[in-house]
Amino acid sequence: MAKNTSPNKTLAENRKARHDYFIEESMEAGIELVGTEVKSIRAGKANLKDSYAEIRNGEIFVCNMHISPYEKGNIFNRDPLRARRLLLHKKEISRLLGYTTQQGYTLIPLSLYLKSGRIKVNLAVAKGKKNYDKRDAMLEKAAKRDIDRQMKEKSKY
């Protein structure tokens, strides 16, 4: 059976994270799920809003990631907000631990996606933005949009 060479299919995305945080570094991690959770995620019933990751006893767990119960799961469904373990090497975990011990850094899941039939998490080391940083980013985005609009109008003539 041939490997799937198509690009990764994004199943859920945390769009608010890029608005609320400066992304310093990101990495791919596996996630430990049960069968009904996998089926629910593939159906698009995952939500990464307000989710974060924390390091406990040398392991990384994603907290507040909501995966809706699978409709046909019955007794096999788990708690939608349970902490789920991420699968990383010890070296990667210790590097992330070094980041999170610094003031203001946290671990945020940016997206869930399929890679070779497995569900992966894009985990980012992030630092929180202040309100004035968010306003500056919005002003820059609006200025860029205006410049692009002006360039498009000039190219018509």
Annotation field: number of helices: 4
Please count the beta strands (DSSP E, at least 2 residues each).
9
Q: Roughly what is the average pLDDT, rounded to an integer?
A: 83
Q: Give the helix proportion (percent range).
A: 25-40%
Order of helices and strands, N to C?
EHEHEEEEEHEEH
Strand order of the largest sheet: 1-8-9-2-7-5-4
Strand residues, percent: 35-45%
Structural class: alpha+beta
pLDDT < 50 stretches: none
The rough form would be described as: globular
Largest sheet, in brief, is: 7 strands, antiparallel
Please give the radius of gyration in angstroms.
19 Å
End-to-end separation? 54 Å
Describe this structure in words.
The strands form 2 sheets. This protein has a 7-stranded antiparallel sheet. Strands 3-6 form a two-stranded antiparallel ribbon. The protein has helices spanning 15-20, 35-42, 90-101, 131-156; strands at residues 9-13, 21-31, 46-47, 52-56, 59-63, 66-67, 84-87, 105-115, 118-128. It is of the alpha+beta class and 157 residues long.
Secondary structure elements and pairings:
Elements: E1 9-13, H1 15-20, E2 21-31, H2 35-42, E3 46-47, E4 52-56, E5 59-63, E6 66-67, E7 84-87, H3 90-101, E8 105-115, E9 118-128, H4 131-156
Antiparallel strand pairs: 1-8, 2-7, 2-9, 3-6, 4-5, 5-7, 8-9
